[in-house]
Amino acid sequence: MIAVDQLSVTLGARQVLEDVSFNAPRGVVTGLLGPNGAGKTTALRALLGLVPEARGHVLLGGVDIRSQAAAERARQMAYLPQGGVVHWPVDVETLVTLGRHPHRTSLGRLTAEDRAAIKRAMAETDVLHLRDRPVTQLSGGERMRALLARALATEARVLLADEPVAALDPLHVLSVMTLFERLAAEGRTVVVVLHDLALAARFCRHLVLLDNGRVAASGKPADVLTPKHLAAVYGVRLVGDLGAAQFDFAIPPE
Ligand SMILES: Nc1ncnc2c1ncn2[C@@H]1O[C@H](COP(=O)(O)OP(=O)(O)OP(=O)(O)O)[C@@H](O)[C@H]1O
């Protein structure tokens, strides 16, 4: 669904991405991995067409994103940026409503479809009870969930999420990753930047491992998260099996 072909980005004097090629298929969650500074955020921003310095091609459903107007891209691709910073003291529901902006032809009244998408996104991220709270007064994890709700409210066919679970507690990590799995199973393309390798092994059926601006490995988790790759890219030794954690968490039944 997304095909990245020979993407290169030079920022200032620094080559941040070099001949990066990978696919993010529909129907599965793709994990974008790599150490700090490997180029993950730059790659996501280039997928969105937000890096003017980018060379190479990003195809969405076979169409080069450069041939699409920005408004069309905004309807097709939703983005959750890293860090969860919000400067305006707007309430959560107003923030989530911004996710509908690419669909709206005027700033007039919301349609029933808009309202349903906003409510669904807030329910899926467990922020309905926070809807009237100023975003600037939320905890880091609550704010990240509100920002995720904004991205989901767009109902784009592609979701790009940069470290979406870094600030979340174990239950919300599981519910957000499970939500990504479901969105992918429904036919969307979901790309998630993760640092938690065990989580990547568990929820991502496809992985792209970046190292110093290049693709070190891509494919199935078993082929990417090998002791050799982990040692070469992260400088860590794999102890045990990433797919067989000694203990685990699960979402309790209702
Ligand atoms: N505007 C810029 N000018 C010069 N170098 C930049 C610029 N933006 C990012 N970089 C560099 O590009 C490299 C990749 O940055 P990027 O944010 O894509 O990494 P990342 O893999 O997302 O890292 P992290 O895991 O720390 O979030 C880093 O070394 C960073 O310092």
UniProtKB/TrEMBL annotation:
Signal peptide: none annotated. Keywords: ATP-binding, Nucleotide-binding, Translocase, Transport. Residues 2-237 form the ABC transporter domain. GO terms for molecular function: ATP binding; ATP hydrolysis activity. Coiled coil: none annotated. SMART domains: AAA. It holds the Pfam family ABC_tran. Part of the ABC transporter complex HmuTUV involved in hemin import. Responsible for energy coupling to the transport system. Belongs to the ABC transporter superfamily. PANTHER family: HEMIN IMPORT ATP-BINDING PROTEIN HMUV (PTHR42794:SF1). This is ABC transporter ATP-binding protein. It comes from Govanella unica.
